[in-house]
Amino acid sequence: MIGKKNIVFGFLYLVLTASLGPYMVANMLPDVDAALADKQAPVGRLQQLQENDFEEDLDALPADKIAMANTAGILALNKMTNTQGPLNAMRSAHAHGNLEAVLNILAGLTLGFIAIGRLFKQIISWAFIIGALTHSGMLYLLNFGQTWASSVLQLGPWIVLTALLLIGVAAAIGLKSEVVKDNRT
Question: What average pLDDT does the segment 13-34 reach?
Answer without folding.
Answer: 84
